[in-house]
Automatic annotation (TrEMBL):
It comes from Nesterenkonia lacusekhoensis. The lineage of its organism: Bacteria, Bacillati, Actinomycetota, Actinomycetes, Micrococcales. It comes from the Bacteria. PANTHER family: NODULATION PROTEIN J. Residues 2-189 form the ABC-2 type transporter transmembrane domain. It holds the Pfam family ABC2_membrane_3. The keyword Lipid biosynthesis does not apply. Keywords: Membrane, Transmembrane, Transmembrane helix. This is ABC-2 type transport system permease protein. It is a multi-pass membrane protein. The chain crosses the membrane at residues 43-64, 76-100, 106-126, 133-153, 173-191.
Length: 208
């Protein structure tokens, strides 16, 4: 949830503001233009998500029992699932921030993301939902990110509640990698389009 709303929605709202105040337009002057701007935003927001996650995890390990991070492969799994999941999620925020025309539209997007959370196995097992909702949930990276984090942090007995009664780490790596590659390419393309549109709007405003 932190990655979804702090990361994804955070980068979307920031991008909308920087498009309006001309920052996105000036980003065309930096090396590699939209790609450089995208990588800078991705890295800074990813670091913020990782730091926040680490703080919450440390407090949770003190306050609650049941985490399985003592296993040899737990931290190893978490070390690749979390960064890969963040890279898979954040480009969606970039696309939303580039495509939306008005900040008020973010409230509607937040509602859609809450609906997506409900069918992504974040609060209760996806196996308890209808086959159609299971397909919808598995089509988005949020489900796979949650599945990978649960696979790293929870005892193996909890896998019985998941689809296929396993953590499906290989499928998690594949789906998140696909979303990261396709999402990043789409984000750079949409950023370039948004930057050109911002330039065109400013030229119209400055013309007599």
């Amino acid at each position: 949830m932190n990655i979804l709303f702090t990361g994804l929605m955070g980068i979307a709202s920031t991008l909308m503001l920087e498009r309006e105040d001309g920052t996105l337009h000036r980003a065309r002057a930096i090396p590699h233009g939209a790609i450089g701007y995208f990588l800078g935003k991705l890295i800074s927001q990813a670091l913020l998500c990782l730091v926040t996650f680490t703080v919450v995890l440390a407090l949770s390990m003190i306050l609650f029992d049941g985490f399985a991070l003592h296993r040899a492969n737990s931290l190893l799994t978490l070390s690749w699932v979390l960064p890969l999941g963040i890279v898979a999620m954040l480009p969606i925020g970039v696309v939303l921030g580039s495509a939306l025309r008005h900040p008020r539209q973010l409230s509607f997007v937040s509602l859609l993301l809450m609906c997506l959370t409900a069918v992504s196995g974040v609060f209760y097992p996806l196996s308890l939902q209808s086959p159609m909702l299971q397909l919808i949930g598995q089509a988005f990276p949020l489900y796979w990110l949650g599945l990978g984090v649960r696979g790293a942090m929870l005892p193996d007995a909890f896998a019985a509640d998941e689809l296929g009664e396993s953590w499906r780490l290989l499928e998690t790596a594949g789906v998140l990698s696909l979303w990261a590659v396709v999402g990043s390419a789409l984000a750079v393309y949409v950023l370039r389009k948004s930057s050109r549109r911002a330039v065109g709007s400013r030229m119209k405003e400055s013309s007599p």
